[in-house]
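Training component of the fellowship. As part of building independent skills, the fellow (R.M.) carried out the full modelling exercise for a liganded target. The chosen ligand was protoporphyrin IX containing FE. The inputs are recorded below so that the supervisory panel can assess the work.
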Amino acid sequence: MLTNTSRSYGSVARIFHWLTALLILSAIGLGLYAEDLPRDTDAAVATLVTIYSAHKTIGVAAFFTALARILWAITQPKPAPLHPERRAETFLGELIHWALYGAMLIMPLSGWIGHAAQAGFAPILWPFGQTLPFVAQSTDVAHLFEGVHKLSALVLYAAIGLHVLGALKHVVIDRDATMARMTRGTPAGEGRTRHGLGAPVAALAVWAMVIGGALALPSGPEAPAPVAQNQTSGNWQVSEGTLGFTVQQMGAAVGGSLPAWTAQIDYDAASGTGTVSVQIDTTQLTLGSVTDQAKGAEFFDTDAFPTATFTADLKRIDGSAHEAAGTLTLRGASVPLTLPFTLTIADDQATMAGEAVLDRRAFGMGESYPDESTVGFAVTVQVTLNATRQPAAADLGS
Ligand code: HEM
Ligand code: HEM
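Fellow's submitted model of the complex:
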């Protein structure tokens, strides 16, 4: 029979039970395994990424399975406890069932929100993208929900432990049909007891305390805020700007930022020509949760090459369309680079935005990733800035 009765679990409920159990136990296994893996070499990080990707992909599957399971359970009678006269035991059993229902949603959701808040590192392999529409990009949010995820895992361990011990007790000590109800669908019990509200309310209280506690706890030391150093000595003073880059990790886009740089810009609006020179402090770069790997010897090697430079001639192509053609020196390699950009000037304010695609191999980056399966070759660089025209006296350069 597909549906439940007050004495038995139908096949749909049983398949859902064992499928969620399998997915959740696999997610726990992979989560705990990944936690202890080394992260010292690039090969170790590649393994770590694969394990976490599997963890997240299975976790997201567990979320949708749980959602379907819960929607199904709402439409079904809940089989009555086998020994309603044992009040405390029945209450504990049901409390744990409700706690497990909570965990089925809270575990994957907290993991997913934490992941979405910090796009980058170990993508989810479902085609839903790596972000969530209502989750802002913020390392604080990511840390907060990682905290919820880790604390909730402790509740989940306890609930599963007691749940399995309880099931075993019914097999070994009571020798009743509790297990057979969930495995073979054998009907058992009187089927007349009404379920109280105590157990679901108590489970809700446990979860409210755990989530509230995790959100209220300080989420570790704050990383020092990067200092943008965008001063200039040219005839345009940069007031604000961003220098970002995007790489493909296992086929998913990961966005990074280079927040510390200085630029000297000389640009003559009449002729549409000028020069630019940019010094970038690579030691300040961030790339989601793989920042340390990006700074390492394999990629930016910021210990050996703390500064990257871009010097170029500026040329107006047509209207606001411009290009900066010059040389990017990064990681000791000097490579020609043309950056197309748009520039609009209103009063003495200039707004520019440009984007160019580099090949990491030209800079000797990621040589132990010779194909694109882990890290793509193309690196897209995005620049935006606002600048203010300096008073004419500064133009004279005297
Ligand atoms: C692998 C070990 C597991 C065993 C042996 C097991 C066994 C059982 C049994 C025998 C029942 C029926 C209890 C009754 O009729 O009163 C049950 C119900 C239940 N199990 Fe498990 N289970 C396992 C893992 C899990 C896991 C990992 C979860 C979820 C995280 C889970 C969630 C539930 C829930 C929510 C119910 C109540 C279903 C309902 O009445 O709506 N179980 N389990
Ligand atoms: C049923 C679903 C899930 C379960 C049972 C689960 C369980 C776990 C466990 C047991 C850990 C290790 C925690 C620790 O060592 O303290 C973990 C870590 C982690 N999980 Fe999940 N998880 C689930 C879903 C997800 C999802 C959907 C995502 C992301 C999309 C995710 C992302 C993570 C991350 C990033 C970590 C590492 C956290 C850290 O070390 O800071 N999890 N998870």
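The panel noted the following from the submitted structure. Residues 221-229, 393-398 have pLDDT under 50 and may be disordered. Residues 11-216 form one domain.
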